[in-house]
Amino acid sequence: MRFWSGFGAVAGCLVLSSFASAATITQGGTSITMDFVTVGDAGNHPDSTRYDAVGYDFSIGKYEVTADQWAAVIAADSNVGNAGNWTGLQPTAGTSWYEAAKFCNWLTSGDASLGVYTFTGSITNPTDVTIDRSGAEATYGTIYYLPTEDEWYKAAYYDPNKEGTGVGGYWRYPTGSDTVPDGIDFQGDTTFDAVFGDGYNQRHPNNVTNSGIASPYGTIGQGGNVWEWNETAIGSHRGCLGGAYAYPSGYLSCYTWFHFPPTTESAGIGFRVASNSVAAVPEPGSLLIWACGSLGAFVLRRRRR
What we know:
This protein is of the alpha+beta class. It is built from 6 helices and 13 strands. Helix 1 runs antiparallel to helix 6. It starts with a helix and ends with a helix.
């Protein structure tokens, strides 16, 4: 029984990793590397809470944009924004929706004013925005943008195999579970499913690589750590989802959503980036060859023990 469970783990890791990729984005003399996961299963059924199907494949950041990534981009183009909150591999925060959109433009074109988002008013103090993904794609090819509510929601909660192989459904939490995740319970707690106040407020987010367990698509930290802007307009506001390090578990739920003025800057609000560039998935034959090779190596290791 251990043998087959071990092989299942090997094959399972293969399937998950085949949907992930790292992109090094270079504009001028500045390069940053971002990890993306592919969100496939185009045309998934909508969720009854309020979210619609997504009829195309796309990529989304495995992690929230980090303070280091933010610092590199604002050093390259000061029009993107000002220094945010937190440092290093902690998620950037204190960035307005407009600043997050300008960050995506810079990733696309190397210029805060050029890309998916065209701003009304001055670039440093925009008052409105026009969004044109198809036009930007025609000009630049690979484009970067804030995910819509539907895209963000699908990456967080949808599981193409929730109800059985090939039968999709939505989990309540972005940890692949309907059960309340375990959060930060006490100072120094290192065993948790998501970074949120679970009886203890540590007063800061974690590094993005240590911000919880993955969603079914492989994103980390869509529940807790910091709230995340999305592209969708709700009146004059913009959507914000996911909860944060100081909030209780209810804010991580698929039933909870917020929206704020796009000028809002808060130490608890950051973002992650999405893209039209989708990682190539190996053909089934390649998967089988790799899995068989891994199985053989697994057997040899067992025999040598």
